[in-house]
Specification:
38% of the residues lie in helices and 23% in strands. It contains 10 helices and 14 strands. Helix 1 packs across helix 2 and helix 2 packs across helix 3. The chain is elongated. The relative contact order is 0.15.
């Protein structure tokens, strides 16, 4: 369908999506040398280098990033126009690359994938889990699940749920060190904070309270903080989606139940801003909406 406009544009998009010339050649039924020659022909015609060819992978140049974004929108718009003209329903199909935070993806995205795959068998799904900030365009991510209070410019985002965070500790820690009677006493306790976090922004009685402190163990891993909390090392501020089961089972206990983390933090489905949203992306967002709402499972 896309090749009816400019075969080299469609080929360029195939190469970027596949991640290598060889993979793109297999996908579209051409030889790798032919794909490489046509890609070079496109670059010569445009007068810019679109892709840096390394031994491990293909990397888009700065001009290639911009051009790929434009080409993807053009081809998607053409496909949508042809489908409308032909009266064809927009069926979710093709590659879909989704990114999610490690713990959240493991606990709440991966277990919910089977119904999506059964419902949409033509979607070729890739799920990548990472706690690092993912550049959607550079990493060619179609959709990202992000847990944040602030969203960057240039993206489309849908809030799926509020990410409530609570102070908690293991019962053993509270037996040994006692429970703080108020927010002011937290500074005298053993606190656990991931990464460079040196303060908690807490909500109490409709106002914000900032508790500064230093983590008793320095780590870049939020999952390590979780395990240290379960082991009785200290008090941490954890998302309910992460510890609701442990709280229900008594392996963790809420500390200062009247205090929570800022309610500005939400779970979002984020995608690059574009004139056309692929059906597979729309379908996955709808699936997340159905899975997490209207009341997230961790609130139960």
């Amino acid at each position: 369908m896309q090749e009816t406009i400019d075969p080299d544009l469609a080929l360029f998009a195939h190469v970027v999506t596949a991640g290598s010339i060889a993979a793109a050649a297999r996908r579209i039924g051409l030889s790798a040398p032919m794909v490489s020659r046509r890609l070079s022909r496109l670059e010569a015609r445009l007068g810019v280098a679109l892709i840096r060819r390394t031994t491990r992978r293909l990397e888009l140049t700065a001009q290639g990033e911009v051009f790929y974004r434009d080409v993807r929108e053009i081809l998607a718009a053409i496909e949508q126009a042809e489908a409308r003209l032909a009266g064809v329903a927009r069926i979710p199909a093709g590659p879909l690359k989704v990114s999610a935070p490690t713990s959240f993806g493991r606990l709440h995205v991966a277990p919910a994938l089977k119904p999506f795959l059964v419902r949409h068998p033509r979607v070729a799904l890739t799920l990548e889990l990472s706690d690092a900030y993912v550049d959607l365009l550079a990493e060619r991510v179609d959709l990202a699940v992000r847990i944040t209070a602030e969203l960057p410019a240039g993206v489309e985002a849908e809030r799926l749920a509020t990410s409530r965070r609570v102070l908690c500790a293991a019962p053993g820690y509270l037996v040994e060190h006692g429970a703080p009677a108020g927010v002011g006493e937290l500074r005298r306790h053993r606190l656990l904070m991931p990464g460079e976090q040196q303060a908690w922004r807490l909500a109490m009685d409709g106002r914000e309270v900032v508790v500064a402190g230093e983590s008793v163990v320095r780590t870049n891993s939020s999952e390590v903080v979780r395990e240290l909390t379960l082991a009785g090392v200290g008090i941490s501020l954890r998302s309910l989606w992460d510890v609701s089961r442990e709280l229900a089972a008594g392996r963790l206990v809420r500390v200062l139940p009247e205090v929570e983390g800022s309610l500005d933090v939400g779970v979002y489905a984020v995608r690059p801003r574009a004139a056309f949203t692929p059906p597979a992306v729309e379908a996955f967002v709808a699936h997340l909406r159905e899975t997490l709402g209207p009341t997230p499972p961790w609130e139960n």
